[in-house]
Amino acid sequence: MNAGLKLFIIEHLSYIIFQVFVVLFVLMLYWLEGFRDFDTAIYSIIMSVILTASFLTIRYMLRRRYLKKIMELPKRMDDALQKDAKTPEYYQTESYIHELYKLYQREVQALYAIKVRQYKFINQWIHQMKTPVSVLELLLQEDTLDKRSVQEEVDRLKRGLEMVLMNARLENFQEDLQVEQVNLKQLVTSTINGNKRLFITNRVFPEVKIEEELVVMSDSKWLEFVVIQFITNAVKYTFENDKKILIEAIHNGETVELRIKDEGIGIPKSDLSRVTKPFFTGENGRKTGESTGMGLYIAQEICEKLGHELLIESEINVGTTIKIIF
User: Fold this and answer.
1) Lowest-confidence segment of 76-85, 212-221, 227-236 by average pLDDT
2) Per-residue b/e over 178-203, b at no fewer than 16 CB within 10 Å?
3) pLDDT tens digit sequence for 119-134
4) What domains sit in the chain, N to C, each tagged with a CATH number?
């Protein structure tokens, strides 16, 4: 007895027992009614057996190929995806398996894309971190140590480490999310104070225009990282001295709009729609040679997960305005 037939018999064993019970029940009713013709009883039993056996045989023939397929372990995915069903039930089962495989494929592709992105990001990040490390090594070789220069390179390393840490946490964003009322002015002021050496070194000056009591619903840690990215980019791409970065908040009815406006070199129109794509550096990134192409991408991902709208407007040699709408 092959495995498929054995499975079929086991599957229909309850049906066979039920049929035997029905025949015996009918014969008992006839007996109680006084109809006791032995030949007729035998004839009824034989006909029931023949009809039941015929029904099961036809049913088995219709399902034989399907049963054979599920009893043999597939060696290729194509073996499992072949359509052999002859009945509505098994046809639906095959459709379910095919849809399940599509979901599996999408999840595998998503995981592969994440792996490739992480691998590429780490490689680029390590390459970028070589620069401050090399500068520190050169500074240590000098007779007189320039503490200011050392601190600048340490700050670059800290910003790089913060970015790679946030990128790693982004995969488990929901587990690290804490939505609360965030005072915008306090958050922006704290961010500026934490990066004051960046402003001083590049001779770019921040100007904050935010109401003292203005609050928004967000996650302060993730939002601070986003603001740092925008401020760092604003400073990095402002090549002229004594320029300003305006940070203001505008209350429009049910929404609050945080604007970060610089007076830098601006973003070319051809790059504007792609600046939030992973690993895209564009013309400006090639000018500085310090861009990983991940800062704006991570910021965009965070804004989407927090439910904030992100808009970027820019004009060459005029500046860039980034808007976060709460």
Assistant:
1) 76-85
2) eeeebbbbebbeebbeebeebbeebe
3) 777 777 777 777 778 8
4) 3-86 (no CATH), 157-325 (3.30.565.10)
